[in-house]
Amino acid sequence: MTTPLLPGDPRQLGAYYLDGRLGSGGQGVVYEGYGPDNGRVAVKALHGVSDRDRNLLRKEVAAWRRVAPFCTAKVLHDGLDEAIPFVVSEYVAGPDLAHAVERNGRYGPEELRRLAIGVATALVAIHRAGVVHRDLKPENILIGPDGARVIDFGIARVEEPSPSTVGVLRGTLRYMPPERYRGQRGDAAVDVWSWGAVVLFAATGRHAFDGRTPSEIQRQVAEHRPDVSMLGEPLRGLVSRALAKESAERPTSEELLLALVGRADLAAALNDATFRDLSGSGPLSSGERAEAVFGGLGEGAREAVPRVLLRLVAPGERAEDTLRTARRADFADGQTAEADVDEVLRAFGAAGILVWEDGLVALANAALIRAWPRLREWVAAEREGLGVHHGLSGASRLWDDHGRKNSDLYQGTALARALSWAATGRRLLTLNRTERSFLDAAAALARGRARLRALLSGVLAVLLIAATGSAVIAIDQRATVVGQRDRALSAQVASLAESLRRTDPQLARRLAVASARLGNTSQSWGALLALHDQWEDESVKLPGFEATANDLAGSGRILAAATGSRVEFWDVDTRKHLGSYDAPERVTNVSLSDDGGTAAVSTRDGRTRLVGTANARPRDTRTYPSPRGDKRREELSPHGTYLMVQEDDPGRPVTLGIWDTRTGKKIVTVNSGRWPLGMTSFSYDERVLSLPVGSGRQPFTWLDTRTHKKIPVPDLQVSAADVLGPLTFSPDGRFIALPVRGGRIRVHDLAHRYTNGDLVGASDISFYPVQFSRDGRYLAQGTTVWDTDFSITAKPFVRYTTTDSECYADTIRASRRTARVSAASEPTASSGP
């Protein structure tokens, strides 16, 4: 059962917010906590740990991580180098065995069998990892929804070849075997003894060795043979053997499991170890308690909850920085009924979620922000404004408490920021009456000061004219000379700006502005007008090398450029270098998936490897055959799930192989046409594969990639002889587009099953593929762009002239607002509206 944190308890350990105490002992305290991913965990803080102990604990944690997670609590993280060392493990929602027996009584035969199997399964997993628990007892066995879980390895040790050593007696006396009392370290047989004692405890409701003093318990362990007659077979014989005084006479944990379930298969044994009655297995989390309170409120009070709780949250990173306090009067916003506010404060206070001290209310602890999904959503919605509101709340309170002085009001940037947030940035938070009055007073003061500044500026302007009039004659001649020089320099800068229009548009714009500032010349005005209306928006040059192969992702954002055996990956928008991949041979081709996540890198040895662009590392160890040569013969599906490789060796028919990159197996072979790669395409969700193989009257065949079966092809009313390129699917799956003879692109609406018509003005000999923008609104062939809304026009509304010498034909990309191109002469990506 979770109990509240004590005043001296930490509120955070590492990245974990602590929510309450699960238990405590001689070694430390176990807390319920929540990690950065909002997951519920158990955090054990260790007390009195020396440097030597830390080194020992590191070995223990490393060993425990090797334990397979069968009926044990998995170690998730350790903070053994922190000021307070701690270990984080899975949270098991349920009581320990001692509390379960105390609350519900002793176990019946079937539940006892399942408990015995679960603990034996855990011991097999522990011992197979070379670890001995050495403190197995009812308090270290949690009864979770999926059965028993063994926890707390605080005195576990890695099993070593030496059979025993004399050392300090550690463990729980009632569950320690005789050899431990003799000072021996013991091996896995120690845990088997404890297993027998635990099973007897669950069966009888009392300890097998129930002496009142340590000496009496030691005598019982050495001499007493507990009664096992109440147990049925095979448990009776197994428990009797497990409690043998000599460790060599005890069965191993695997022998226990074999006798109980007939096999030592841990995964299979889990089913036999799971309890059938899972009701009431664990306490509610603070988030679940908060949700229960929320559900019991009236409608008006539920609407008031985010307004109340968000006023108690600050934008800090650490747990103690995320909480703030409020007075009852701070919740009076003139919009929320006072009765609803009181209902919220009363209900959440009674549940221990809110606490009052000296007239101030606060959240009991910051863990609720992670534990309650509803509060997480509210905080996320207001995150950008929490800091603004925190400052505004404190400033308005100070202003109100100290007589509402003008000197305490916001001014300048602070005022503008607060007014902007109050007007447009708020989602759930409301301003209380004091905060609203504070902003009104600050705004009024700012307006008054602005009028005064305007009056003073007029007076100063008159004085300035009088003061400078006497100097006009003296500087007139010098101004004439300087003006002539500036106009000449302006013309030179304007000429330079014009020359940089395509190669560096942003620098060209800055130079044009500088030219106009230097002199009001026809050249400067010409440069300004030309750059204002030009198509190019920006140009990104990648430093350091010239590319022999490159590709641009479908989004136009990720660029891959190769030289020699190295491939560089870049984020074009941010200019960030994502990483480098060193191929085993010279790179001949690079192809990116549309989403930019995967690159197919082909090398001189005739192999293609898949590389993730985020980390520039191979996705796996597989390679795929690819033809030798510098001509691109590989393409990836939109998300990199499939790889298409065209094989056109001399003397053999041209074929296209399509590989499933998840399995490394070829799923389709296409024998059609001179260039099947250029005529094959996928839908953006990769569910439809369009092949250049006739199907009835249609020039294409469609396959369902999940079943590999044919699916109907819409009637495009076109013959194979008129088709000039592959079918292109819009990312939203609504349209398909097909270039056909006569300078047309046929657009078919898949959602409504009809052909919209033909877009006109396309090229019959273009090397550029047809591309949809990411939202499906626009269609581009090269840098000619159409609107797919035929009600506007079927003609292109953008036609930007470029050549193959400037742009690779297959690197034109249409994004939501721009068409992006990649230049062939050097690693460059440029974009224009």
Quick structural gist:
With about 850 residues, this protein is α+β, with helices and mostly antiparallel strands. Helix content is about 35%, strand content about 20%.
Please summarize the sheet with the most strands.
Answer: 6 strands, antiparallel
Q: How many β-strand stretches?
A: 42
- Shape descriptor reads extended
User: Would you identify the CATH H-level superfamily of the domain at 95-282?
Assistant: Transferase(Phosphotransferase) domain 1
User: How would you write the strand order of the largest sheet?
Assistant: 1-2-3-4-6-5
CATH architecture of the domain at 95-282: Orthogonal Bundle
Overall average pLDDT: 81
Please bin the fraction of helical residues.
Answer: 25-40%
CATH topology of the domain at 95-282: Transferase(Phosphotransferase), domain 1
Name the poorly predicted regions: 154-170, 275-280, 470-475, 803-833
CATH class of the domain at 95-282: Mainly Alpha
From the N-terminal CA to the C-terminal CA, the straight-line distance is 62 Å
**Beta strand %:** 15-25%
Q: Give the class from helix and strand content and strand pairing.
A: alpha+beta
Rg from alpha-carbon coordinates: 38 Å
Note the total helix count. 19
Protein model, in words:
The chain has about 850 residues and is α+β, with helices and mostly antiparallel strands. Among the domains are: about 1-90, 2-Layer Sandwich (Phosphorylase Kinase, domain 1); about 95-280, Transferase(Phosphotransferase) domain 1 (Transferase(Phosphotransferase), domain 1, Orthogonal Bundle); about 285-440, no CATH class; about 475-535. About 35% of the residues lie in helices and about 20% in strands. It is built from 19 helices and 42 strands. The protein has a six-stranded antiparallel β-sheet. Strands 19, 20, 21, 22 and 23 form a five-stranded antiparallel β-sheet that branches. A hairpin with a 4-residue loop joins strand 17 (about 565-570) and strand 18. It is extended. The model is unreliable at about 155-170, about 275-280, about 470-475 and about 805-833 (pLDDT under 50).
